[in-house]
């Protein structure tokens, strides 16, 4: 849903679309004769790299059948993006996924295969962005109901891709997904679990947005006012604002954006959590509000959707949307989710067996 309007401001989306509330939207970069820009296409259910990278991570878990670390980034993810051909919907052809990826994601291949770095140092020097956070939801699933374990595993894995607040966001997002699986939980409890683990600028940004979200909800603020306030709050942590497109005029320009900084934060995760809170955990409304806030619309939608999907289950996704997504992308997402579920159950069973074995051993020491 966020793909057709990615990088537009909230004002641009309002002027061009009114409100995005359907998968059946035309990409804003499509020309009047409906030909794809630069051979690429979006809209009408076409997924972006967020979804494709998430599916890659699910496949890595299926291959290894255990928890992950940076060596799995160096091995498994490099093979997934650079050596396994797949249908890439935006390109409308089979290709290596690396052809579609943005430069911070291509960095995975450069650092691990070409530079042969220590896997734990793979993220050093990368452009700091949400590129790792956007696809780590499966780590939250594998550590369902254990936010701390999800945070630790996401950091151990994603340090091979990102650093600084880009890495921190990956850990906190995975933790939020894990917390969302706790039976009977609420979005407030999920947010508190994320805050308990978040560090530095990421924690401060989430805390500030959360405080504002609760106030705005109590006031019954409309979407425009919520977006304006969220953008005002996030600006000190993420200085890009609406100027997110890279142009020749930016070459050599001095900027603090995308630089490692303990006081910085990506904006996608704090905003996603904020929209979830404003809407009291409503799946569809939270995603739509996040997308209509503009900028990195697909990743804001992904983060809100993964957290609330874990809370509510697949029944919140319409059957017509599922059918359109599968047909537009040549995927079978329910089958992929079912297969991943079996992998997760196997990993969780092994975790439980290991826990039981340790408990028996420790009990024996007391005899």
UniProtKB/TrEMBL annotation:
SUPFAM superfamilies, per the entry: ADP-ribosylglycohydrolase
Pfam family, one: ADP_ribosyl_GH
UniProt cross-references to Gene3D superfamilies, sorted A to Z: ADP-ribosylation/Crystallin J1 (1.10.4080.10)
Transmembrane intervals: none
InterPro entries on file: ADP-ribosylglycohydrolase, Ribosyl_crysJ1, Ribosyl_crysJ1_sf
Name listed for the protein in its UniProt record: ADP-ribosylglycohydrolase
Lineage per the UniProt record: Bacteria, Pseudomonadati, Pseudomonadota, Alphaproteobacteria, Hyphomicrobiales
């Amino acid at each position: 849903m966020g793909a057709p309007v990615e990088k537009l401001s909230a004002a641009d989306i309002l002027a061009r679309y009114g409100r995005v509330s359907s998968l059946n939207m035309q990409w804003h970069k499509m020309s009047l004769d409906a030909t794809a820009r630069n051979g690429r296409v979006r809209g009408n259910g076409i997924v972006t790299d967020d979804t494709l990278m998430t599916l890659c991570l699910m496949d890595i878990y299926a291959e290894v059948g255990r928890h992950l670390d940076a060596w799995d980034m160096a091995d498994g993810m490099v093979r997934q993006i650079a050596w396994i051909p797949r249908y890439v919907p935006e390109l409308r052809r089979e290709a290596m996924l690396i052809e579609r990826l943005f430069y911070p994601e291509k960095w995975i291949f450069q650092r691990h295969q070409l530079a042969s770095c220590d896997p734990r140092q793979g993220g050093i020097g990368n452009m700091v962005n949400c590129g790792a956070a956007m696809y780590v939801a499966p780590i939250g699933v594998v550590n369902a109901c254990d936010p701390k374990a999800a945070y630790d595993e996401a950091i151990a894995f994603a340090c091979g891709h990102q650093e600084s607040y880009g890495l921190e966001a990956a850990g906190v997002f995975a933790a939020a997904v894990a917390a969302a699986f706790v039976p009977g939980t609420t979005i407030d409890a999920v947010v508190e679990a994320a805050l308990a683990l978040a560090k530095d600028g990421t924690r401060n940004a989430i805390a500030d947005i959360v405080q504002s979200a609760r106030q705005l909800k109590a006031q019954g603020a409309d979407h425009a006012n919520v977006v304006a306030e969220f953008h005002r709050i996030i600006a000190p942590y993420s200085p890009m604002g609406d100027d997110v497109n890279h142009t020749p005029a930016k070459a050599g320009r001095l900027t603090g954006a995308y630089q490692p900084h303990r006081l910085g934060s990506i904006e996608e995760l704090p905003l996603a959590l904020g929209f979830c809170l404003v809407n009291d955990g409503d799946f569809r409304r939270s995603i739509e509000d996040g997308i209509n806030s503009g900028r990195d619309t697909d990743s804001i939608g992904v983060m809100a959707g993964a957290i609330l999907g874990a809370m509510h289950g697949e029944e919140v996704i319409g059957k017509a949307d599922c059918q359109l997504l599968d047909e537009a992308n040549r995927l079978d997402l329910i089958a992929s989710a079912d297969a991943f579920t079996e992998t997760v159950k196997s990993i969780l069973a092994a975790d439980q067996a290991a826990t039981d074995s340790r408990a028996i051993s420790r009990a024996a020491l007391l005899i």
